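Re: that chain you flagged

S.,

Sorry for the slow reply, it's been a week of failed gels. I finally had a moment to sit down with the sequence you sent. For the record, here it is as I used it:
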Amino acid sequence: MITISMFNNKGGVGKTTLTCNLGNYLADYHSKRVLIVDCDPQCNATQLIMGSDFASDLYWDNSSTNYSEITTISDILQPVEDGDSTILETIVPINKSTNRFNVDLIPGHPTFSIIEDRLGSAWHELKGGDLGGIRKTNWNTSLVAQLKDRYDFVFFDLGPSLGSINRSILIGCQYFITPMGTDIFSILGVRNISSWLSSWMEIYTNSLELTEKRTPGRLAQYKIAAEPAISKGYLGYTSQQYITKSKEGVRRPTKAFEEIINMIPAEIANSLQVFMPNYLDSANLKIGDVKHLYSLIPLAQSVSSPILKLKSSDGLVGTQFKQQSEYEEIISAITSNILTNLKLA
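Prediction finished late last night. Pasting the structure tokens below so you have them in one place:
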């Protein structure tokens, strides 16, 4: 089972759209068992996959919801919020048969942000070598262990923060990808990620060493590795293209955007190359470009559909058919590059 976090400190880079459509492409075109875990309190992945009516039913009128047995991300961490070091024992995702993306889903929840303080306290305990703090911080390690063998791919859709929630998600994950926009803030976001990862990884590994000295064998008992896999788990980035300007009917690149695009490979190499797997060549870190799809994204969101499954009955018209065809090439190339970087192709 491959676990991948989709993460960038910069919002508005098409991260959720890419995550959900990538999951759908792996499910539909590669016959993979896919789970998406919505870890963003804004719950964008949940709304894209299941629709606004579902979200209203689940988050607002939950007394009459038809999904009372479904496990949300907040449910999973409720024991930790209550002070325990464990997570919920039974995980029931939304089944793929209920959505057009053909993926299982652990829905997000707006209350997920409340756990930030509890996980922050656990991190403080961890620094002192406290086993309870380490176990709480490793809640995602426990979740992945529960899900093992049920899926081929698990994607974690993260919010843009550099806080205790995302840190704990990454600690339990094998790989991460950074979807990027063509703006200076995406580059600054990459620098922030690099500094943040380096800082807490050093603290984390030192704390585990201290705990192992104090209580030998206890970390292994809870299947906590001496070093998080994510430390060598960077698979690369995608670049969301900008809208070009037209001159005499011909679309031309804007100089400022071109300069930013040219900066990205060097910035990625300087900031995140240290986290890539030892076998991976830095030349392969660019996974793909995502063209601006104009009205195609809002349409897909409005009908809770993968882009490749949009039909005339959904409102697909005119040039949108060509855009859909172009997106198939885009998502196919991105998927192929990810599988190559995972040594699965």
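What I noticed first: The mean pLDDT is 90.

Talk soon,
D.
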